[in-house]
Amino acid sequence: MTLTIVWGLGWVVTSIERTAYPRFKRLITAHELHLFFSPTRDELQWASDATDGDEHLLALLLMLKSYQRMGCFPKLEDVPDMVVDFVRRLVELPEDTLPVYQAEKTAKNHRGLVRKRVGVLYDQAEARRIVEQSIRKEAAAKNRPADLINIALEKVVEAGLELPAFSTFDAMASKIRREVNTAICDGVHDRISPAERAGLARLLEDRDGDGTTLFNRLKKPAQGPSWSHFKTLTKRLEWLEDLGDTDVWMDGVAAGKVTDFAGEADAADVAELRDYRPVKRLALVACLVHKARMRVRDDLATMFCKRVATKVKKAKQELEEIRLAEREIVEALIGNYRTVLKHIDEGGPVHAALVKAAAMTAGGSPGGGG
User: Does residue 28 form part of some domain?
Assistant: First the structure.
């Protein structure tokens, strides 16, 4: 199964490989075969008592071991040949024995036997209710269908119910996600004033100095922390603030949803956005404006911190240079005055000529009073 999108319907088919839905691996190791698909003596006796032939015995054992491993019943034709061969050899059935059901009634009876043995309930209506409830709850904050399916899977397993088919999860996730996203877009649209809506619409029409639409300005990253770039970024923030209070627009919308919607708008060009219905188009642009506003604020703060850090580093370097220069002066003074002290007689007169010479070397004045 592959990931495909039918844009006209808004329908998303999620690849089963992207989810935690149980399925047979393409390559099953010998260790996994012995660990997960080896029937116990008790299971073999149970299956033998419930069946009347080799084909049904093999089929029932495969149904049991597959359910124990995956929590759902696969079609017998979907069970890998290596699993069929392994179980057949292990219970010593003839090589030509195939797991088949001649009648659906027998298959249904065997599924009931397996459910009873593993202690699971078969209530598809309740399972679908749990799936819908969990997906609808999580879809308010999460946007990836695979994430929604995985959460629903966990809830159904916790309830001790047999898993519905993957197609059920996939269809419900797509439908509910679309409904929730539509409601979110409608809410964002309604919280934007008519004048602000007109301003957002102009982003897709008005041209910037480089000939591109103003919409592209929302996507531009910050440049280096120079003073000119800082001033440019400040003007961009003022421009974004003039578009409207995006915090009001996004009131009650989960941050993850805003990020996903903004990402969808960022990945599209103006021509692609024009294909959206007007309410959704405006909501996506509003989310991109909100994220751009947050990013510019962060960039300004980062740029300011970098500039301050540069100034502090430069100031520290200059301070260190001053400190080193002063140290040289102090050391020179100490050295010269030490020379003066050497020529002072403790008990008698100072040798004036020597003191005068030392003082002159130190930069002092022989006749000074200091």
Answer: no
